[in-house]
Amino acid sequence: NSRSCECGHSLFEFHHWGFSPTHHPCPGEASVSFRGRSLKGKQSSLPKGYVGLVLEETALLLASKEREVSVKSTFDSLTVWNLERAPTNSDEILMALAWPAIAQGIHAPVTDEE
């Protein structure tokens, strides 16, 4: 009993996890059922100039204490999920994604016109 969920360019198989995706009428919003619990999602783009990385840990060398990772793929948007309610702009992850634009505005040079 497996279900497929398309995410970007990859296809993930969910075996025995109980995901039941449903179509949501609002663009950028989604809902699924996970083990009988309702999850609400909202698509969010990463800030301009940022890119997300999917990393894969390479095999550890016994003599090395440092971990090594390689880039498996990249993404420019993600879905933020909440239990029972849709994410809002007051959710921490969405506020964090808005911070680079706020920081740029704070640190931008002030002109005489302003």
Report the order of strands and helices: EEEEEEEH
What's the count of strands?
7
DSSP helical segment count: 1
Structural class: mainly beta
Q: pLDDT below 50 for ≥5 consecutive residues: which ranges?
A: 1-17
Question: Going across the major beta sheet, what is the strand order?
Answer: 3-4-7
Distance between the termini: 62 Å
**Helix share, percent:** 10-25%
Relative strand content = 35-45%
Question: Mean pLDDT, nearest integer?
Answer: 79
C-alpha-based Rg, rounded: 19 Å
What shape does the CA trace take? flat
Characterize the biggest β-sheet: 3 strands, antiparallel
Describe the protein's architecture and organization:
By secondary structure, this protein is mainly beta. It has one helix spanning 92-107; strands spanning 2-7, 10-15, 29-34, 37-45, 52-57, 69-75, 77-83. It has a three-stranded antiparallel sheet with strand order 3-4-7. A two-stranded antiparallel sheet has the order 1-2. A hairpin with a 2-residue loop joins strand 1 and strand 2 (10-15). The longest helix has 16 residues, at 92-107. The N and C termini lie far apart (62 Å). InterPro entries: RNase_H2_subunit_C, RNase_H2_suC.
